[in-house]
Design a protein that fits this description.
CATH architecture of chain A: Roll
Number of domains of chain A: 1
Oligomer: homotetramer
Number of helices of chain A: 2
CATH superfamily of chain A: Hotdog Thioesterase
Order of helices and strands of chain A: EHEEEEEEEH
Largest interface: A-B, 25 and 25 residues
Largest sheet of chain A: 5 strands, antiparallel
Chain lengths: 143, 143, 143, 143
């Protein structure tokens, strides 16, 4: 029986013009949007949406980081590989690698926490079991 | 004689509608743009532009990170305090605190490297002396 | 007795680095964000927020347009002048002029409609009287 | 012999989370980015890039407009159909329709002008023949 849990996903992407800065390279803030796109593609692969209408929980970020190794330019094609490297009662930690033609472009991390969407201020809660049951830490990644 | 070197700056800002996500809070990628705005305001305070036309050097980011403590909502006013915490021949390291009504909203860091803009791939070079002479590490921050 | 109704507002703004495209000029989509910023500043001047928490109405756009006359570059300072040129039971029409040093940079228009936020699909409704009472068509503009 | 000129293109797209506003629908400024993505996909289909490195010409926008008919929500899939409706010595006019499941979401237009990239201020020039030769006005659209 194969696993029904997801731990990683690769998104294929092309650089859009409006993602460039005036130096002709992708603006550093855009990489966080690429990482988020890959995260949401991972959730879709697992049969989930991270933000369905009327959802009682949401997943704001508590930390995010990138190290930039090589620039991306207009119309460059690249891969965004995201994997789950930590999973606790209330949080998910991701690691992310952007690569182009086999070369490492950038390396990112992101931690999200499950919160109730109907209260202010935000209050962390346990990840609902129907979501937690769909994910696991990627092989080779220490929790 | 007072110092003619700059090491920190505070930018006052209000949240724009298009910076929010569907949860009604500022999207996590936008914080990197706030940090950059404060960086450029620091450079202007020092009498410089970070990206003048025809400049032979540029300052791409090699690392950037944020930790998020409290959400920002529509029209919230907040301060972005940036300071230089490291200065080497080719790089500048910044630390950044976003605060609202005295409460810590988020804490960020960013490292930029000086490169020549007229060559591909990007090649790091020494920060021009007329720029390096305008900045120093903020008091109390270890280099 | 002076009027307590607002019909126009001018927002002073400086170009941010992340608003540029790779040609070094502000991306054409960004002008719509400038127009929106000026709209929300007009509402604040009138003592209102266009999107308060828990509001029962919202103001999605039904049309928006810009004509571009001159480019804006990094750190350019400019004015966004917005005025109300039409006001009906359910809609507000704005006209917008961006100017730099007295020169016309771009001219925009935008029409928004009042909708209930608690129903899907969006359903247009009358602008609440406490909002409608704060605005009027700018002098010299035909309704 | 089949035509070697391109006049229209359809881009398949999914709504990203960071493109939403706090009402949970795609921000109106984002539609202009969708239209631009479709334009650049049309150019690629014609064997061209609209902004190759070291290009002597660029294509800034002189006018852009959208009418919004239905909202787009998170992860919605939709088509962006762009076609050339006008072609002169120095300009290209596009019309654009966004559709979801056969329903019209929004209708846009955009006019771009060919300029030399090496002079300030921008100066319009003839579209280079190797570019002009790749495009034509879509059948049924009056020039």
């Amino acid at each position: 029986m194969t696993s029904s849990r997801w731990s990683e996903h690769t998104l294929r992407r092309r650089v859009n013009f409006y993602e460039l800065d005036s130096a002709g390279i992708v603006h550093f803030s855009t990489f966080f949007r690429y990482m988020e796109e890959a995260e949401h593609a991972l959730w879709r692969a697992a049969g989930l949406s991270i933000a369905p209408r009327e959802s009682e929980v949401g997943f704001p970020r508590v930390a995010a980081a990138f190290e930039y190794h090589r620039p991306l330019c207009f119309e460059d094609e690249f891969d965004v590989h995201i994997r789950i490297v930590g999973l606790s009662e209330k949080t998910i930690r991701y690691a992310c690698v952007l690569a182009q033609d086999g070369q490492n472009v950038a390396t990112g991390t992101m931690t999200v926490v499950c919160v109730r969407t109907d209260v202010t201020p935000l209050k962390s809660v346990s990840i609902p079991p129907e979501i937690a049951a769909r994910f696991e830490v990627a092989a080779g990644d220490a929790q």
